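Submission sheet (multi-component)
Chains listed below:
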Amino acid sequence: MKRLLAYAGIVIGLCILVAATSSQITGDVHKLRAPGKEKEWWREHYSAWGDLTAMAYLDNIVKFREARSFTYGQPAGTCKNNLDLYLYGDSYVTDIPPHVYSYVDSFHFIFRYQQQQCRLDTGKRNVLIIEVSERFLRAKFSDTSLYENIQVTQPIAGGILTESTAENEQHYASLLPSFKIADLFNPYINQNLEYHLFNYEFLTAPRLMKAGLNYRLFNRASGDVAISDDGQYLFLKRTVTPGHIYSCYGSISAGEINKIVASLNTIYKHYRDAGFDEVYLSIIPVPATILQPANYNRQIPAVQNHPALQMPVLDLYTVYKNHSSPQELYRAGDTHWNNNGMHEWLNLVNSTLRTENSKIDRR
Amino acid sequence: MTFNSLQFLVFFMVVTLWFFQLKNQKARIWLLLIASCYFYMSFIPIYLLILGGTIVIDYIAGMLIARSEGSTRKGWLVLSLVANIGVLAVFKYYNFFIDNIHTATGIIGRPLDLPLLKIALPIGLSFHTFQAMSYTIEVYRGRQPVEKNFVTYALYVMFYPQLVAGPIERPQNVLPQLKEFRPYNRDNVREGITRMLWGFFKKVVIADRLAMVVDRTFAHTSESSSLALAIGAVFYSFQIYCDFSGYSDIALGAARVMNIQLMENFNQPYLARNISQFWSRWHISLSGWFRDYVYIPLGGNRKGEARRKLNVFIVFMLSGLWHGANWTFIVWGILHGLSVIFFPGKDNFNANKRLAGLLWIPVNFILVTLLWVFFRSANVAAAWGYIKSIFILRGGSHYIGINSVEFGFSLLLIAIMLWKERVKPGHIISGKSFYAYTIFMVLLCYYFGVFIENQFIYFQF
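Outcome: structure written.
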């Protein structure tokens, strides 16, 4: 009997190791366990109170329980819809419905992980807004990799041609079908093992208990989450870790700012030459930038106010900085804005679209 | 693959279960060698070739040394040592050396622009290189018969529990154990598991918790108060102890489960009453290596007091350099050497002076703690600034990265750790106590562990 158990242990252990190494197998396991949830299989826990609350398993802490509640009204002044709006963006704007944008005849959303080929209608004024969370500013705009996401081509069938799985691939190894020795030693194996071994609903309770214990005793959140100095907000730890590429703290060199600005100028020229009538940059400040600004590295104003920057900006940073109640712009347990914060951005966008539309009238 | 990872736990379970299902030692050696290759490759796969290369060289050198006499015998030993030290020199010290040439030639106004290597340091290079060298030296000295089986020799160097951070073993201790078939032994398994759990506790509950304070104070030296900096320095002493000795506990425990007894690497070093005693209790396998292969061949204490002091100085400077290619480690080693030379202290205190002896423990601890600041700092100037800031008793931020409850909890954990290792150093727990202890420690590590993917500090060496 003991021998049988030992062999069972060996086989199960090997299977788990192989499954955690192989993208193919882990993907298949995930499809079986959570049909329809292709993305982010490695983090199953969901909390209605926010992504950071979920990451830190702080669902039981009342002060971080701010429900997701957004309202989307009809914008004023949309009698002439002559704009084609292309919005490249991330999770801040993913769920915003097209009808909230003023003067827009045709709306195209390009998610940051996707690639999309755009067929511009020369009869319309084509506006591209490049929205980026501050934490991705340095990583995304130190080069022109954006070209892979937004491709402007000759007329074709239109719509999304390819949905890249680039981000998911970073979290998988590819043991099969094209096997490489290095695939056996992928850096995400522990993350995958955690999924295979411990990502079950019945194990959520002890995790919530551990997180609650650490919070109540030590005022600490676990994993990738930090608590604001005033204790009222959760921050993504990387955004407040000096030196991290996602961080709004720690010094950022003039050379790096210059490099970002140079990339933005190249991108601006590229898309203007490709046929866009105007291209805007919209950087969304991370919560720590507005809510805990003492050590802010001022990377947004450094880029936006750079004398060499050619791309026009939708300056949400200044709007937020001058807001009468900046603490009412972000959700307490989430990396994103709340309804107020979103509407400040929408006002800025619609005001810009109004200006763009007026340029058509003058034409 | 770090010991405090899920990958290691699954890997260890599979290898251990498989090990005991094999009924002959040859198969077990093959299993452990393959497992050790997988373990090492999980850091940077290609570096297995470097390790393999040195193993082949030392294996052949061992054979040639064994069948030669006189100067030829010595020649083969020198060749093998040059090969090992050459690998260390290229991968660990080349860039440091070139950097210093750049600085020196810049200072004299004739700058040289020599190329730097863009390579990462293979994990644990200094450990397995030293272990390999001890084999050829022992064969040369005739104290170890040559190992003719290549697979067994390769496993001696690569045995995964001690491959990347020691203990730096001797062939006389490990090779006979690797060759002997030993059946499953429940007491060894229990002792091994309880020791591993104690190691995990020291690493994830204590060391990684203290790391939050240490990282904070060393990153914010200029704005922190003297008190905060002093706490950071003291916590670093315990962090590095719990980190490194925790690793050793896991290594010794993992080997013990498979009936292999590795040498002890620590013996309550912070209870030492002088710096010499500290070095007989801290990283014992490295101290022993330098004693046997450097200090004694240099003459030890046989050539007069002045020569002894010089030998001690050389050994500690080399020990500092062994830890890393940075002036901070060299200065740390030199300061330890000078402390041993000029403040040797007393080992024995009679009954009347027992209290006086006890008083030397905190004095020695403070000295060791101040010297650790060099070890932890990015450069010598930063270390000096840190130490100076402690002693000028300045104000500033008292924030140390954790709240007062966690600070108190950290002190309690340190006290428990010291008490346990002093009063109950054993690890065999029989019957129901074993299961209760295991469950308790697993829960303790889970609920109070700090999981921030911190590698063990000594992996970098």
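Remark: The first helix of chain B runs from residue 6 to 21.
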